[in-house]
Specification:
The complex is a heterodimer. By secondary structure, chain A is an alpha/beta fold. Helix content of chain A is 29%, strand content 26%. The chains are: A alpha/beta, B alpha/beta. Chains A and B meet through helix 1, helix 2 and strand 6 of A and helix 11 of B.
């Protein structure tokens, strides 16, 4: 049975804290680009963007990233996987990748490959709403909403208002 | 026995004495709480204070021995309207309890007139006496309240509150037990130290974060603690509560000022600036941070009081330092503020992760 482990309010607070931490570690936040990994990572990026706008009155560009062509578990013909460039110049920028759940790290590896194929950012950081452990690659998040120790049998489901109608995180 | 509450400005309120019969003096605080009398009276913040409860009837639910905030009460006296001696579920009747703590009390005081008077003229010193002649009035005018309130309530010796989670050093400026209860509940491994503990001694404990607790008095009376904060704040995540937050503000070049109308109630509305969310939390402070001074500092305002717009929560722009002027541990009051502890623990874990360079615990 699904059990709620983060409610809407806690999610809002976690994202607010991540925003504060981004401000904290990027004295003056020009040069920043938020890149959301489809699907829910994009909403996380937009939430952080609007908080940054509200708190620091700064506009940070947000890009959406489709990592499908870079996945390591796809055997499809490369030609059918069209790589879509994001429409923001990321050269020499500080890119903050955002996603909902950090698990094996394979998605993030793919996202970094995707970013690298488009240019050479000065730095890539990672912000995630939930870190559930069980990494299979040497990857870690810089900004974490909540650490949730899990077993590999469990599934973590992140629901967000923009697509699911409500904010909550469930464990099953 | 007839006794008198005499204010610094010479105003006299007659009443009937209960509890201890000693003559007492202290800072008169009007508290608007309705329940949680035992928590407020045992709160170390009450050091040197005479607490006046504006609610018409005090003691309806009785006194619960599980709700103490320190071992001994620090309060110098209590002023109430009517008392009710009920003992719901084996609780202790209010008047007996005050007597057992040897606190002088005075009841049947016109609390509406007293609250009005303080609202108009601001907080002042007061005395509970058997007579109200000129001599008594002169005495209270001449009284100087001790500036070393924190020294009296802070633990003399360090002690642990062990658990298995992140390691926190709590600098005790007048620590309420409910802060420890909230930290215990979250598995935090805490060590509580004296307010004057040196930076070296704190660093030798290798904490993940430091809490500067609530406490009585003015932050300017604590120059050593202030210097410690300035030194420690670049190295560790810090959480301030009440007096601790005022010290953080002072350490970051903000000015401290007195509130026009002091906040002493168990549920006052506070708005989180970022989300606009309203929380009802316990307030127990007469001082606040000057607003114009904060805009020239590295601190940002995270929470404001809905009633008067005063600052209730702060954060450092570039360092993992947060503070609340309200009391997130409640006791008494609603649990809306508990998230402060969750956020601070997450902040410590995140900072630990950064410094550790990516070695995971799983």
């Amino acid at each position: 049975m699904a059990k709620e482990i983060i409610d809407g309010q806690t999610m809002t607070r976690a994202l607010t804290r991540i925003t504060y931490e981004i401000i904290e570690r990027n004295k003056g936040i020009d040069n920043l680009v938020l890149v959301g990994i489809k699907t829910r990572g994009v909403y996380v990026a937009h939430r952080i963007e609007s908080r940054l706008k509200q708190l620091e009155n700064l506009n940070v560009p947000v890009a959406e990233l489709d990592i499908t062509p870079f996945r390591d578990d796809k055997n499809d013909d490369v030609n059918t996987n069209k790589i879509e460039d994001i429409d923001i110049d990321i050269n020499d920028k500080h890119v903050i990748l955002t996603d909902d759940v950090l698990y094996t790290g394979r998605t993030i590896r793919a996202a970094m490959d995707a970013i690298m194929s488009m240019g050479r950012p000065k730095k890539i950081s990672l912000a995630v709403l939930v870190d559930r452990g069980h990494r299979e690659l040497p990857i870690r998040a810089d900004f974490i909403g909540k650490n949730i120790p899990t077993s590999q049998k469990e599934t973590i489901k992140v629901l967000m208002k923009e697509i699911d109608g409500e904010d909550r995180v469930e464990i099953d | 026995m007839k006794r008198y509450l005499i204010l610094e400005d010479g105003t006299v309120f007659p009443g009937i004495g209960f509890g201890s019969s000693v003559i007492t003096t202290g800072q008169l605080i009007i508290s608007n709480i309705r329940t949680g009398i035992e928590q407020t009276i045992t709160d170390p913040n009450a050091e040197g204070q005479i607490l006046a409860f504006s609610t018409s009837a005090i003691g309806t639910p009785g006194i619960n021995r599980d709700f103490y905030e320190s071992i001994n009460s620090r309060c110098k006296g209590v002023v109430v309207g009517t008392t009710i001696g009920s003992t719901v579920d084996g609780t202790i009747p209010f008047e007996n309890w005050v007597g057992s703590l040897s606190i002088p009390g005075i009841k049947n005081v016109d609390m509406r007139a007293l609250s009005d008077h303080i609202a108009e003229h601001g907080e002042m010193k007061a005395s509970i006496m058997d007579t109200y002649d000129e001599h008594a009035k002169d005495q209270i005018k001449a009284l100087v309240l001790p500036p070393d309130l924190v020294k009296r309530v802070s633990t003399k010796q360090s002690y642990p509150n062990p658990n298995i989670g992140v390691k926190v050093v709590i600098v005790d400026l007048g620590l309420k037990y409910s802060i420890l209860r909230q930290l215990s509940y979250r598995g935090t491994n805490a060590i509580i130290v004296n307010y004057n503990t040196s930076v070296e001694e704190i660093e030798a404990l290798h904490p993940d974060g430091i809490i500067f607790s609530n406490g009585p008095g003015h932050p300017e009376n604590l120059p050593n603690t202030l210097k410690n904060i300035q030194e420690l704040q670049t190295k560790y995540p810090i959480l301030g509560i009440g007096l601790g937050t005022l010290l953080i503000a002072l350490a970051n070049n903000c000015d401290i000022e007195t509130l026009d109308m002091a906040h002493h109630d168990s549920s006052i509305a506070v708005k989180e600036v970022a989300s606009g969310k309203i929380d009802f939390v316990n307030h127990n402070h007469s001082l606040t941070i000057n607003k114009s001074s904060i805009s020239n500092s590295n601190l940002i305002v995270t929470d404001i009081c809905v009633n008067d717009g005063s600052i209730e929560g702060i954060r450092h722009e570039y360092l993992p330092i947060t503070g609340s002027l309200f009391e997130p541990e409640a006791a008494p009051g609603p649990s809306d503020g508990y998230y402060i502890f969750d956020e601070f623990i997450q902040s410590m874990e995140s900072n630990k992760e950064q410094n550790r360079g990516g070695i995971h615990k799983w």
